[in-house]
Amino acid sequence: MFFPDLVIRSRRVVTPRGIRPAAIHIRSGKIIGVVDPDDVIADCPVDDAGDAAVLPGLVDAYARVAGGLERATQAAAGGGITTMIAVSHDAGGETSAVDVGFWGQASAENVGDLPAIAATGVFGFICGQVPEADLRVIMPAVRRLELPLAVSDTCQTPVRHQSDTVIRLCGELRTRTHLVHVSPATDLAPIFHARAARLPITAQTSPRELVLADSDADREDRELLWAALAGGVLQMIASDRSPLQFSVSATWTEARARGYSLAQIAQWMCSAPARLVGLDRKGAIEVGYDADLVVFDPDAEIRPTLTPYLGRTLRGRVERTYLRGTRIYDGATFSSPCGKLVVRRH
Predict the structure, then answer these.
(1) Average pLDDT, the chain
(2) Distance between CA atoms of residues 257 and 222, nearest Å
(3) 6-15 vs 53-56, strand pairing mode
(4) Residue limits of CATH 3.20.20.140 in the chain
(5) Domain at 6-55+290-329: CATH code
(6) DSSP class per residue in 65-133
(7) Left, alpha or beta for 146 (phi > 0: left; psi -120 to 50: alpha)?
(8) pTM of the full predicted structure?
(9) 215 exposed, middle or buried (CB, 10 Å; 0-12, 13-18, 19+)?
(10) Above 60 in pLDDT, residue 161?
């Protein structure tokens, strides 16, 4: 029998099988048990979260790094993000507060280099708005590597043309395709039909798009975006251009107002992004998974001092963040950086 070196318990542990009282037993950075909350070994350290929820550490599948890796990953830890897959960035030997992986850049000009880039352990490739002729070069090359292609700027002008082209080529070339920047302005019907036809396509939106609306028309479009998430047309939420430290609070504020649950937050912000990039030991509170955990008070109020949420009251506060069983954020301060570079398994 293996005894835990840490137990985290709560009356609201968000597991793949529902929200329930539980004690999470952790040993050497892994979850070794999700058991009855009273099942605690004598003399074992216990973090009793009480009525606060315990969520899996968030997996941010499309994060933009600005201001240095250590600073960005501290913001991530403060927002309950324990793993981030960053848009290509030269870490330059910097330390990180959370686990970090990377997307590679793909273009028609560098397709010959993609196998070598893939061998470095990137989790997929990204490309921006490019002509169809370039996509016809890029997409088969990425498909041969059995990696996803994240197509960015799909919601910039011309919205309909770009997304329709990408979806059509996904069906024709069978490249695993991931649409980013899906906003309230996006025509969601082609994505719905592609998913219904079982094309290998996924799509994400961001907290910013789910929260902000400047007009009645924007608010109507935002409701369609929420419905698309609930209905599975969109599968996940990633920070993208949103502040990392407010990702879960901003999303939860609007989600709870619409009757969505913390279990759905965990699906959209933990398990679905982990599946996208093939992190099969992250994104859920399960035996054998990394002990990446967030103690989250869903009823607390916070008032951000940063745009785009300046002047708003958000619901939900990250109280503590654990990375592989190590507390990296305690609600006010950060521990010494212990994040690792994560790479795709070949």
Answers:
(1) 92
(2) 13
(3) parallel
(4) 58-277
(5) 2.30.40.10
(6) --S-HHHHHHHHHHTTEEEEEESS---TT---SSEEEEPEE--GGGGGGHHHHHTTT-S-EEE-S--HH
(7) left
(8) 0.94
(9) exposed
(10) no
